[in-house]
Amino acid sequence: MSDITAPAYRTIPIIPALKPGAMEGKGPFVASDKLNEAIGFPGQLVEDWHDRAIARMGELLTKYRSLKVFMDACVHCGACSDKCHYFIGTQDPKNMPVARQDLLRSVYRRYFTLPGKLFPKLVGARDLTREVLDEWYNYFNQCSECRRCSVFCPYGIDTAEVTMAAREILDSVGYGQKYSNEIIGKVHKIGNNLGLPGPALQDTLEGLEEDVKDATGIDVRFPMDVKGAEVLLITPSADFFAEPHIDSLIGYAKVFHATGTSWTLSSMSSEAGNFGMFIGNYDQLRAIAMRIRQAALELGVKRIVVGECGHAWRVAYSFWNTLTGVGDGADPNDRFAQMLQKQLDHRYKQPAHICEFTWDMIQDERLTFDKTANDKYIITFHDSCNVARGSRMGDLPGGQFEIPRNIIKAVANNFVEMAPNTTREQTFCCGGGGGLLTDDLLDLRVKGALPRMEVLQQAVDEHGVNFMATICAICKAQFTKVMPIYGFDRRMVGGVHQLVSNAIQLGAK
Amino acid sequence: MASIVFAILFYLATLLLVVGVLFRISTYAGTPAPLKIPTTPAPTTTGGVVLRMTREVLFFESLFKANLWTWVLGWLFHGSLALVILRHLRYFTDPVWDWVAFIQPFGMYAGITMLLGLCGLWARRLFVERIRYISTPSDHLMLLLLIGIAASGLSMKFIAHTDVISVKNFFIGLMRFDIKPLPADPLLVVHLSLVVLLLVVFPFSKLLHAPGVFFSPTRNQKDDPRERRHIAPWAKSFEVSE
């Protein structure tokens, strides 16, 4: 592992000078035979990887309009070139979204376009060599699929889509990344990304009940596998034991308790995260989402609510209906989707985000808060990338920005915003998303967090901010690890429902 | 002689352009978009999507957010080009439509602003480090091609006049498959040759961004995944067996 260095602060917005080759290297740990084969990929780089990779690319080009259009439409205008947090943090020009995409696009041109076949040099087309393949592995694992570049592209070209395609090609020739593939294996085998078995989970939940009882004197339940509960909560498994995630889990439980909502977790689907998205694999994406449908059917719940997890919310909001028929319009031939349709209560949005749930309850005046409980905090909100640019909450565009902020303002007195060109749809990624939250990429993660850290520092200097709320498990894990390297207290990061938990008055209504 | 060569070239180039672009569009339209991926916040209605796309195509909204200089130069070039092309309709219509006659003077100045915009964009490509890094030879050549077209066109207006009446007769004739003589004017030959080249490269190059933008799922999709199921034909096949 290379040395970890936290770059010095500058004033945002900044366009750094290029440092070619700054992040060249072997990339993250490669997945072992066992990990790859467990989820249906070749164990290691296959002998005919060249032909298979090109064939796979050709197949993806016929399956994904995004990829097809994005390969042709880029004009190299450079609108995206200074927008990626990894480029800003590392200065490696191949981390400019346009250059990252061109690693794939150059090969597309060579094999799928006439000018690339006739005049490769002229149009920047390249043969797929082992060096190019390694370059894909390295740089497509330096993208958190946060979509910030897609906000600024005049054609809406989304590097996340290109990264997903590249990773899908790499996986299909047996060149997968260890962290993501290991996690996908765990979710299939054990039910969650962290590999927590049912009994351990049960134990944790019982411990939490005791903790909350000690702190509040009230019996707040953390139910698991309760048939006939109204709400099935699907939350990132980090919520069960990691700090500060667990404080948000306590917050959700208190909201359910205070509103008298019966709810349950599921031991077989104790995970909201869906790393199938990160590797761009539709089958994995679907298989992981299917577990949730199965749990919902077995438990007979009326509502599905998703906890504080960024990419999980994107998958749930944008893809669950497509993948499993959670919302409206299940296929008539799909018996289980039809069953789920009948079972769910369609007066509510399906699925719903926990913030939507809580905000509805606040608006219905079913919750009371003591806002002074959060007076020790001057709070800012970090929009998580997949929530900000890939999903929505509530009925209006931009609800994903307003609802979490509304909740914070309802439970706390001191709220300030960070610099406007770095929040909402222009938010910077935490630097750990997209399957990069692994220690072998720590140097990249630290550098990728730089823009957010610089802006946070501004907010600290100007407003005395001492708490950054966020609604993503990866953001929380990434920031608690990276912020001390930048001289912040790791406890500065926490969930929105952690603030809810602090202020909520149990038994008041 | 020049008239026959150019007549053949224009017929072939136009055919290639039309067939090529229609073919590309049909592949975009025929490729499924299996997942809902609008870049949010996104409109939730079709009307909203039309509005978003209109702002994008007419005003380059996202580019405006991204970089003011690129936006100014890019918009100046594209806006001018649109006017210049419309102005050229006078070579293809007889009698000339009123509104085409009306925009003639504006179209002339647009030729100049188009050239300025192109030179600005090229300067950016040459002198801004990261834009130079991402440029391929064809990116430079494309700008040079357009600069050549603009410069040769303007020079026929401001330096050495061409017999535009004959030029018009030639093109009207072309449209009626009746080949008329073309003035053997070197500037005109250069101008028309470069235009033919542009027509030929269009369906094979990054100029496909023009039709492509309408097919970009991040921009043309409605944000309604919970309300409406969205499934691609190839993904549907998974469902029947379960």
UniProtKB/TrEMBL annotation, chain A:
| Domain 4Fe-4S ferredoxin-type: from-to ranges | 65-94, 133-163
Record keywords, A-Z: 4Fe-4S, Electron transport, Iron, Iron-sulfur, Metal-binding, Transport
User: Which superkingdom is the protein from?
Assistant: Bacteria
Q: Identify the InterPro entries for this entry.
A: 4Fe4S_Fe-S-bd, 4Fe4S_Fe_S_CS, Cys_rich_dom, Helical_ferredxn
The transmembrane residues are: none
Spell out the Pfam families in the cross-references.
Answer: CCG, Fer4_8
Q: Which SUPFAM superfamilies match?
A: alpha-helical ferredoxin (SSF46548)
Select a single GO molecular function from the record's annotations and give it.
4 iron, 4 sulfur cluster binding
Protein name in the entry: 4Fe-4S ferredoxin-type domain-containing protein
Q: Which organism is it from?
A: Sideroxyarcus emersonii
TrEMBL record, chain B:
Subcellular location(s) of the protein: Cell membrane
Instruction: Kindly give the InterPro entries that the UniProt entry links to this protein.
Output: NarG-like_domain, NarG-like_sf
> What Pfam family is a match, any one?
Nitrate_red_gam
Q: Which SUPFAM superfamilies match?
A: Respiratory nitrate reductase 1 gamma chain
One GO CC term, this protein = plasma membrane
GO molecular function terms attached to this record: oxidoreductase activity
Please provide the record's keywords in A-Z order. Answer: Cell membrane, Membrane, Oxidoreductase, Transmembrane, Transmembrane helix
Its recorded name reads NarG-like domain-containing protein
